[in-house]
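FORM 7B: Structural annotation worksheet

SECTION A. Query
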Amino acid sequence: MQLPFFLRRPWLIVQGTLTNRDKPDIAKLRTIKDPEAFVWAVLPHAARSFAISILVLPRADAWAAAIAYLQCRILDTYEDLYPEPGERPTVLRIVGVRWKTADRVEPPRLGDALVATPRDEVHALLIDRIEMVDAAFDTLPPTERASINELVGNMAEGMAWAAERFASQDGVLNDETQRVRYCNYVIGEPALYAMRSLLHLPITATARSDAMDVSVFIQLANVTRDIEKDLERGVAYDESLRPILASALPPAEVQTAVALARTELMREALQRFPAYARLVDGLPGGINQARGAAVLMLGFTDRYYAGCASRTGDSGWHKRSRAQLYIDGILGSIWPRWAHRAVERSRANFTAFLQRSALRERE
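SECTION B. Predicted structure
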């Protein structure tokens, strides 16, 4: 007999926190036969720090969000690792609609040669065991499946659009307009899904606009963190990095160019933080697990940007420990005022970085 989720939740959170993401137990993940057990076992590897933000949600919301995350992670894996750039948009679009029918197409597998890191190995495993995600998805109510299908389909279309831009523009998104459009697809759509299905908020014009700003704020944390990794696979999200892809920049100047691009992308992202603050502050009062999840996600995003800032030579960031983030998430779900304080601590970090970077620019 399986224990109720509220009793299993603490263990799942501890298990996720202690999971060694650098040395995943692939053999164990391959042998799990129960779809629910597989979802909870693979989630800390697929979602990494953000898995905790899912686990603190009410059971039904956590289950739906976990499945949706794994489906989106499968799309991400094809975007990152599929070997034929010319075929990538078509593959993304096919995978993006496969959950809309009972007769699901078999997705292409990734060869071992494409899996370079343990993290890649877990992501490839998700594709190899996609039938487990299918079985989990089929347990959801029809309305939830439809909402996730809308999310995954729109996200796949956006990734396909970006893949076409990268292919036609020598691996580069040319400007802020293209970056924003990409972010709106890959994080804006999940943000809208979270607002309508997890936070149960009406999607007004203002809410939609804020969701799009939130998407840039969140996604550019990933982009700024992974600049070097993306350059290695022939991709850049800023025009200033084009000479590196073309091997037209002396090696001694590459590090400086990357640091400058990272700073500019962080500034572009952090200026949109007020939209996230409005989202958290606008959630209903009282005990609200979704508010705690939003505070946790903000805390981990803050830590991502702290790491990126240090790589630009900035040392003024007040970086909170994981324990502090968990405390903020728990207490933020109980008291709106605590959540607001957590938001303001992050705002102080972001504002101070913007001020310091502006001063350095004038020097």
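SECTION C. Observations
The chain has 18 helices and no strands. Residues 22 and 118 are 6 Å apart (CA to CA).

SECTION D. Sign-off
Analyst initials: ____
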